[in-house]
Amino acid sequence: EGYTFNGWNPAVPQAMPAGDMTCVAQWQINRYTISFDSQGGSEVDSITQDYDTAVVAPADPSKEGYTFNGWNPAVPQTMPAGDTICVAQWTANPYTVNFDANGGTSSLSEQTYSFGVAFADLPTASRPDYSFSGWWTSPDGGTQITGDTIVPVLAPGYTLYAHWELLPDHYITTISLHAGWNLIHAKLNFTETSQKKLREKRAMTLSKKGNFYVFCEQLSPPEACWVFAPADEAITLIGTSPENVDFEASLRSGWNFVAPLEDWSLIGSKAVIAWEWDGHFFYPTDSLRGGFGYFLYWLGD
């Protein structure tokens, strides 16, 4: 095994010689080749050498997204008596993906996926007042990742971000608050999430009789309320557009916190006086600007 017969020495005579003789076989050692199929990895040179000589295994190949798990069959320690093909064995790399709900809530904070196959199972996400529009590679913009997207090579700490679309017929209003007390308005029919945000800020309004302050449980157009801010900040509130708001019909006898949706004049009305808040002081006015808060006394019927 591993050799090619090259005849006898001395050669076998054609006729019997006049004496005993020994013919010794002559052998030529064979050369064989070990080839390497890297299965899409980096190329590995074949090894050709004499039978039964020591074989030095090549350096491991590399393949993007995979970990090399050896050869099948394993590279022999000595050259076998025949050509051999060793096939690379690979394991797809696992990657941990972080999920940033981007203002909402995700069903998973992280998940592990294998390179080269579809993401398939992505977490769900929810956010009040918004519809979920998928996972993306950037908080704003980027590329959308779906269940059909093939998992690429990912860097450590790779994060996908939820994107959101405001619900139909919903609008956002951003109110700037200065440090101290602020008289803000209800320009929209605020959603429960926004109402909760105002309650968490301890918003204050007038009691039904208008003679003392109470915590504001529900702010509706055209009402206003007090909000205290320890420092300058902005709050974002969401709601739907109010319809057919009758400003005067919403007023009750006595003091009111109001925020008309449109400019409104006290002249010719049953309003006795209105006070506008400039962030530091009240001052009287007979003209109310739409979208601003006022302290107004109404005579009523």
Compile the SSE list and pairings.
Layout lengths: L2 E7 L14 E6 L1 E7 L9 E4 L15 E7 L11 E9 L1 E7 L4 E2 L3 E5 L10 E2 L3 E7 L7 E2 L13 E8 L3 E8 L2 E6 L3 E2 L1 H9 L3 E3 L6 E3 L8 E6 L3 E8 L13 E5 L5 E2 L5 E7 L4 E4 L1 E2 L5 E5 L3
Parallel strand pairs: 3-6, 7-13
Antiparallel strand pairs: 1-2, 3-4, 5-6, 7-9, 8-10, 11-12, 11-13, 14-20, 15-19, 16-20, 17-18, 21-26, 22-25, 23-24, 23-26
Rounded mean pLDDT score: 92
Strand residue percentage? 35-45%
- Biggest sheet strand order reads 9-7-13-11-12
Please estimate the helix content. Answer: under 10%
Which geometry do the CA atoms define?
rod-shaped
Major sheet details: 5 strands, mixed
CA gyration radius, whole angstroms = 42 Å
What is the N-to-C succession of helices and strands? Answer: EEEEEEEEEEEEEEEEHEEEEEEEEEE
Count every beta strand, where a strand is a DSSP E run of 2 or more residues: 26
What count of helical segments does DSSP give?
Answer: 1
List keywords for this structure.
301 residues, mainly beta, Immunoglobulin-like, 3 domains, 1 helix
What can you see in these coordinates?
There is one protein chain. This protein has 301 residues and is mainly β. It folds into three domains: 3-92, Listeria-Bacteroides repeat domain (Immunoglobulin-like), CATH 2.60.40; 94-166, Sandwich (Immunoglobulin-like), CATH 2.60.40.4270; 171-298, no CATH class. 3% of the residues lie in helices and 45% in strands. The chain has one helix and 26 strands. A five-stranded mixed β-sheet has the order 9-7-13-11-12, with no helix packed on it. Strands 4-3-6-5 form a four-stranded mixed β-sheet, with no helix packed on it. The radius of gyration is 42 Å and the shape is rod-shaped. The protein starts with a strand and ends with a strand.
